[in-house]
Design a protein that fits this description.
Blueprint (H helix, E strand, L loop, with lengths): L8 E5 L5 E6 H4 L7 E2 L1 E6 L4 E7 L10 E2 L2 E3 L7 H13 L5 E6 L3 E5 L5 E5 L2 E5 L11 E8 H10 L6 H11 L24
Parallel strand pairs: 3-10, 4-11
Antiparallel strand pairs: 1-2, 4-7, 5-6, 5-12, 8-11, 9-10
Length: about 200
């Protein structure tokens, strides 16, 4: 059984993408954040609109910043797609009809003005939903739907202020194709070893 949200642990990752341990989530993010396993998810509706979220104002990292639909950390031995579904329910009250791997090897490091660091091996997923979100205010301050083309153009031009990981992910997603509903899924065998449970 997965640990309760108030006792989440993250999987620590080595340079080659292998799991090297675990640590409590609330002790990991700081000025010397170790590389760890996470995920990003972009939620789309049947029209191909993407769901953006504004991170809650009391988040430790990038509070109040607009970003992609959902992010999180898989628990030790939890398949990432299951973690995506869990966080979509918790943060947005959404049950996805499909969850597909898009960018299996995305990795980034970003530093806030306060010095807090995010340093993640962060596979990127697409989720398709048929309902509107019911945002959890502890996680999400606001939501909005945008056309994918308008969103991508805003990110690529720099006109849209967005989280640093999203800014790096969007060009890679754009390279897959113009229609996010027709993007081909990536092979799960391309995930880093830490993301493939025993």
């Amino acid at each position: 059984m997965i640990a309760q949200l108030d006792s989440e642990h993250v999987v620590l990752v080595g340079d080659a993408g292998q799991a090297i341990g675990v640590a409590p989530k609330d002790e990991v993010h700081g000025r010397d954040t170790p590389l760890h396993l996470a995920f990003s998810c972009y939620v789309f509706d049947a029209e191909g609109r993407v769901l953006l979220t504004r991170r809650a104002d009391d988040k430790l990292t990038w509070p109040g910043v607009w970003t992609n639909s959902c992010c999180g950390h898989p628990q030790p031995s939890e398949p990432i797609a299951r973690a995506v579904a869990r966080r979509l329910r918790h943060e947005l009250g959404l049950a996805a009809s499909r969850i597909d791997l898009m960018l299996p090897r995305f990795r980034y490091r970003a530093v806030m003005a306060s010095g807090i660091v995010e340093y993640e091996v962060c596979p990127v997923y697409r989720a398709i939903v048929e309902t509107d979100p019911q945002a959890n205010p502890e996680e999400v301050g606001a939501v909005r739907w945008m056309s994918w083309a308008g969103f991508a153009e805003g990110v690529l031009s720099g006109d849209l202020e967005i989280s640093p990981w999203c800014r790096e992910q969007v060009p890679e997603l754009v390279a897959i194709g113009d229609d996010p509903l027709r993007w081909p899924s990536a092979d799960v065998a391309l995930l880093p070893p830490a993301a493939i449970p025993d």
